[in-house]
Amino acid sequence: MQWTKVLGLGLGAAALLGLGIILGHFAIPKKANSPAPQDLDLEILETVMEQLDAHRIRENLRELSREPHLASSPRDEDLVQLLLQRWKDPESGLDSAEASTYEVLLSFPSQEQPNVVDIVGPTGGIIHSCHRTEENVTGEQGGPDVVQPYAAYAPSGTPQAVNAAKHGIAGVLVYTDPADINDGLSSPDETFPNSWYLPPSGVERGSYYEYFGDPLTPYLPAVPSSFRVDLANVSGFPPIPTQPIGFQDARDLLCNLNGTLAPATWQGALGCHYRLGPGFRADGDFPADSQVNVSVYNRLELRNSSNVLGIIRGAVEPDRYVLYGNHRDSWVHGAVDPSSGTAILLELSRVLGTLLKKGTWRPRRSIVFASWGAEEFGLIGSTEFTEEFFNKLQERTVAYINVDISVFANATLRVQGTPPVQSVVFSATKEIRSPGPGDLSIYDNWIRYFNRSSPVYGLVPSLGSLGAGSDYAPFIHFLGISSMDIAYTYDRSKTSARIYPTYHTAFDTFDYVDKFLDPGFSSHQAVARTAGSVILRLSDSFFLPLKVSDYSETLRSFLQAAQQDLGALLEQHSISLGPLVTAVEKFEAEAAALGQRISTLQKGSPDPLQVRMLNDQLMLLERTFLNPRAFPEERYYSHVLWAPRTGSVVTFPGLSNACSRARDTASGSEAWAEVQRQLSIVVTALEGAAATLRPVADL
Amino acid sequence: MQWTKVLGLGLGAAALLGLGIILGHFAIPKKANSPAPQDLDLEILETVMEQLDAHRIRENLRELSREPHLASSPRDEDLVQLLLQRWKDPESGLDSAEASTYEVLLSFPSQEQPNVVDIVGPTGGIIHSCHRTEENVTGEQGGPDVVQPYAAYAPSGTPQAVNAAKHGIAGVLVYTDPADINDGLSSPDETFPNSWYLPPSGVERGSYYEYFGDPLTPYLPAVPSSFRVDLANVSGFPPIPTQPIGFQDARDLLCNLNGTLAPATWQGALGCHYRLGPGFRADGDFPADSQVNVSVYNRLELRNSSNVLGIIRGAVEPDRYVLYGNHRDSWVHGAVDPSSGTAILLELSRVLGTLLKKGTWRPRRSIVFASWGAEEFGLIGSTEFTEEFFNKLQERTVAYINVDISVFANATLRVQGTPPVQSVVFSATKEIRSPGPGDLSIYDNWIRYFNRSSPVYGLVPSLGSLGAGSDYAPFIHFLGISSMDIAYTYDRSKTSARIYPTYHTAFDTFDYVDKFLDPGFSSHQAVARTAGSVILRLSDSFFLPLKVSDYSETLRSFLQAAQQDLGALLEQHSISLGPLVTAVEKFEAEAAALGQRISTLQKGSPDPLQVRMLNDQLMLLERTFLNPRAFPEERYYSHVLWAPRTGSVVTFPGLSNACSRARDTASGSEAWAEVQRQLSIVVTALEGAAATLRPVADL
Q1: 3 state SS of A257
Q2: Residue range B613-637: average pLDDT?
Q3: What pLDDT was estimated at residue A167?
Q4: What is the CATH architecture assignment of A549-698?
Q5: Residue B436: its pLDDT value, please?
Q6: Do B609 and A613 touch (CB under 8 A)?
Q7: Chain B CB contacts of A319 below 8 Å
Q8: Comparing C-alpha atoms, which of B525, B524, B527, B548 is closest to residue B399?
């Protein structure tokens, strides 16, 4: 999801998206045969924590990443079978498991006509060619299943130029600079397999589709019978041919460019001064009037992609779902992305499944495990699943937990999520020992790396907010389900790598993880324990551990940013933030009062129906922030607090964006009307949210 | 909501909408002080049936219709106070009651400059004027509070023409023909106060706004702080001046018109041959080159309009709401429309409130009584209420019951509603004696007037479907809440009147009801008992009496119509109905299986949480048919089964409409793509609905 440096060649810039996907269907549960506990059982929790086994996670990862398993490939389908087999195991499986398949539009390079990037001399002959594949450093970078580096959904075409027309960009080359990914290192002896850094030939693949979900079936599940948009009407594909290359090849191109010096922030670690073109240096490796030819032969193909879903039926409230998921498909072997997450998914389902099959335990609520397909192409499996079961999921899902890349690095936990999940993650991580030296809890270790000063709690670990980088996106943005993404990550004092260096390359292999990312797999185990504890707390606690009052801090901070950074501007245009202030205050008061009522109830012996009603208020709060009419241009984004923010002020996104657009227009313009509309949308959502937190008979 | 005959005058046609409205806010409930029954208590039901008193309904009506109470008028506000007083009565009131006010855009004729319709002679002098007010026949048609007949939201202007330009229509005159409203009768001795027929001077007022809700705040509650659309950007107002007149005046104009004879279906009972113009007859009452001048001086005004809401807190599931409502505002005295409904609302709340205050009874679920404001202008109060509390209402409302005009005539019950409410209405009406001679139940009487042959039940009374004629519209179309509208109505063998003849005129008075519509008020009592029984069954039954499998008949009939009337056409364009067939079959099977599970559970002793989960499936089924992206052009209409149907085939409206538009275009056109999209939308909704009916742990 990050931007990489882009080599202009009569060309421009493009985003490198790191996405991916999977889905499944459902089956008939057996009869309840286990005790139905009233509340979270700490002994069971302890047992689960103990049984989550680092060695088994390692073995899962070895198997999952043994072969490349690009979405819809035969190996991807093999893994579907592997998941089904595990989840149907009589000793350690779930109540039921099923695969479900969508027919989705994917994009692949042509096997007959590989994409090429050549330098063409003045007479038309090829005088230099970029590598078509990554170097076979460990024996795993070769073979027919390693997909050639490409930019998925970039159109085919053969543009040829070198910055020929500043505003007539004909194609894009993308590369990852060693300054951004390798802490500046670039020589083979400093890179994998000698370190975790990216070898010079490594190329980051990615999807260049702007939205998410199957491109042909927006808002509809990609079942065979669904209406498909005519290809000519699909929006969100890159308009021009695009190709990623390694920094080794980028150096050949970039260090030979002519023209004015690029801005300082564009300079990197390729060992030369980066220039903007046009043309090549007279004293460089190529004739000055050489050109770059980019030939892209990507093909769009309708492919079958499967999700796998496994379920543990709840003993008491089977209609409340705790959803836990990760995608299954990778670009190549994908040991880190996504198999480090899938390895944990399998270990978690094994431990819980074993307790289930032994009759030791059955959760209060249902637990659903999901292995999504085709995430890398744009969260396709998870999105299609939410489109197919929109109402059911929206009515019944307690929370969605995503563990995609489980270990980026082994320094600290990192959690992204909506405010109501903060407390359950805190509770879980305070009770789990951190890997590494010392005797810190995951929580205490975490707070050293990411923290903030909360007006309510003082210093606490800080949760990031959810963008659209993995399969949680449709759950939070489209369905309004409280969501989180959990991983172990970097010590930023030790590396500034944008992401782990072999991300989306053929070097993301088992040995890479085993040797560099997490030897001993203790960080994997830490993430498994964290996720496992969160799952158990959400599925077994009598009172749902979603603390809705934690939204108050977010709202207050958005409000303050609006007041400080937009207040004067709005006043100038006669727009008052008064109603927003009132709405935030109302929310704060109602959330606090609800918290009080919960405390009081917890001291008594409330009956299950009373608690159910309260839990419904907690579960459904996140839905009250959805407005499918708020951002008509933003596909799937309905959450008025977490929609994409393009405005610079960190406040309610609709307000921030509208102000940013209106800023230079006159009072009374349509842009200012939109500011007022966005303000009303937020106020209405907050007032509506506060109304759902009131005692239920107050209407 | 019906069309009336329109007198063209260089003019055109317009719809006469019969709408209206009221809202309230909420209060803090007291502690439970009554027994909490597990299920519907038949003794309580019997008591309520007995205590609903025709005489008290009559007295309510007398008071409610004593003065004109146009939306936002002082008398309308007086009635807000009356309702609050009744609902806060310590002996017979509810747990709490509150008024809430919206600032909404209404339209009124100018008091200084009355709207006029004149015939202007060739020299420019006025040679004939239409009546500006209705004749003061009973002493109630005079006075400043009787609003001059007008077409609300029609723009001001003074067009003058007589069919001058066939395609340059400059203004519209609307009248109600005696053939349509008076069974052909038109002389004063045959009309009110000598019969129930409309006097010659009677004029039907109405709102000519195309959508519903406050015109300035679509999708936002019309609280003072909400963003308001610039008047120039409001859509849905009539484009040209429009004025309603009585048939007495219409005769003067129409019977003097020149030109070709109007089509036979346009001829009426004014005693002459209707001609199309242009110009007047040479041998008529006016010079042939006279013109008609229409001067409309309507004004748009921001006004405060209130809803009143009263609540009986549920003893066991206070977060489940049974909503019962009617509007309060009238055009003039509004004895029938809406006070005949409000008179019942007050009697129902008195009887239930008395049981409540005595400590005899408290319902399992909460009951909410609503008196909506400004319905006549476009369902404004109810719509703003649903906009303000969208999520809360959608999550928690079991059903919405509307009783607007409670008695159109005294022959038979008439119910409009979605399929799941059929069974509860049947159960209720089988147990209540019908008014009138004989010893029939309301059900047995009803089936004589409206019936159909159900494949499941045999001959049953037939429910109508819900359009947008009263305040149920936002509940069913915008929120997807199972809704119904209940009334007593005509024996169609005795009258063909489009609606009761004094509808929306100054002749809709207490005496009119008392003498002609329902002497003795036994039909009012029958409606009160029906509504009362339905309310009790919905609020007190352990298992919700919503029979979701009754949707199967509707779906099957829509499917059959699609197959029979569109199948060949679709096949021609390579569009298969196969997926729709599968989806309907799946729905049928899942609905039947759910019915089985309910029967089994009912035989055992299910715990309340089990039943709650099942009831949630029943309550929320209707929501699964909502798709806010299905009909982007149809404001508020999200229900894929009940959206407005313009196509002639009585099937899924999106499909019907899209086919009707595509019919004459080539395969591959955008119109045919839209047919496929609409088909997929319905299939997805039905598949999603079926998924919510499955056992909850099957996902």
Answers
A1: strand
A2: 97
A3: 62
A4: Up-down Bundle (1.20)
A5: 84
A6: no
A7: 613, 616-617, 696-697
A8: B548
Residue A677: is its pLDDT beyond 70?
A: yes
Tokens of B223: 């609280």
d(CA B574, CA B569): 9
Sheet of B6-7, strand order? B6-7, B172-174, B242-244
Query: Residue B167: its pLDDT value, please?
Result: 62
Q: Which of A375, A384, A388, A622 is catalytic?
A: A375
Per the residue annotation, which of B375, B588, B622, B674 is the catalytic one?
B375
Partnered with residue B328 across adjacent β-strands are none
Has B301 been annotated as catalytic? no
Where does CATH 3.40.630.10 sit in chain A? 42-105+301-417+467-540
| A10 — pLDDT class (breaks 50, 70, 90) | very low
**What CATH number labels A42-105+301-417+467-540?**
3.40.630.10
Confidence of residue A166 (pLDDT cuts 50, 70, 90): low
Q: What single string gives the DSSP state of each residue in A496-550?
A: --SS-TTTTSTT--HHHIIIII-TTSHHHHHHHHHHHHHHHHHHH-SS----GGG
Q: Is the pLDDT of residue B270 over 90?
A: yes
- Flag whether residue A608 sits within 8 Å of chain B, measured between CB atoms: yes
pLDDT over 60 at B221, yes or no:
yes
What residue spans in chain B does CATH classification 1.20.930.40 cover? Answer: 548-698
pLDDT tens profile B191-201? 999 999 999 99
CATH number of B42-103+301-540: 3.40.630.10
Tell me, what's the pLDDT at A18? 29
- Least confident residue range of A135-149, A356-370, B156-170, B589-603: B156-170
Q: Is the pLDDT of residue A290 over 70?
A: yes
**Share of residues in chain B with pLDDT > 70 (%):** 94
- In the block, tokens 């006043």 appear at A571
Cβ neighbour number for residue A167 with a 10 Å cutoff:
5
Question: Is B623 in Cβ contact with A688 (below 8 Å)?
Answer: no
* Nearest of A380, A235, A232, A250 to residue A306 by alpha carbon: A380
Distances (CA, A) of A245 to A7, A507, A557: 10, 15, 42
Residue of A nearest to B323 (CA): A699
Compute the distance between CA of residue B402 and CA of residue A295 in angstroms, rounded to an integer.
Answer: 66
**Nearest Cα residue in chain B from A370:** B699
Helix (H, G, I), strand (E, B) or coil at B319: strand
Quick check: helix, strand or coil at residue A150?
coil
Phi/psi region, residue B15 (left: phi>0; alpha: psi -120 to 50; beta: rest), is beta
Helix axes B578-603, B670-693, angle to 10 degrees: 20
What 3 state SS string does B386-443 have? HHHCHHHHHHHEEEEEECCCCECCCCEEEEEECHHHHHHHHHHHHCCECCCCCCCEHH
- The answer, for A368 touching chain B at a CB cutoff of 8 Å, is yes
Residues of chain A with CATH 1.20.930.40: 549-698
Q: Above 60 in pLDDT, residue A411?
A: yes
Tell whether A292 lies on the interface with B, counting CB pairs under 8 A.
no
Interface predicted TM-score (ipTM): 0.93
Q: Which of residues 432-471 of B touch A (CB under 8 A)?
A: none
Q: Residues of A numbered 60-99 whose beta carbons fall under 8 angstroms of chain B's beta carbons: which are they? A: 95
d(CA A435, CA B114): 84
- Selected for mutation to probe chain A from B38, B384, B392 (highest A CB count within 10 Å) is B392
The share of chain A scoring above pLDDT 70, in percent, equals 94
| Annotation: CATH topology of B548-698 | Transcription Elongation Factor S-II; Chain A (1.20.930)
From A19, A371, A372, select the one nearest A209 (Cα to Cα): A19
Quick one: average pLDDT of B263-288? 94
> Per-residue pLDDT tens for B415-449?
999 999 999 999 999 999 999 888 999 999 999 99
- The bridge status of strand B365-372 relative to strand B317-327 is parallel
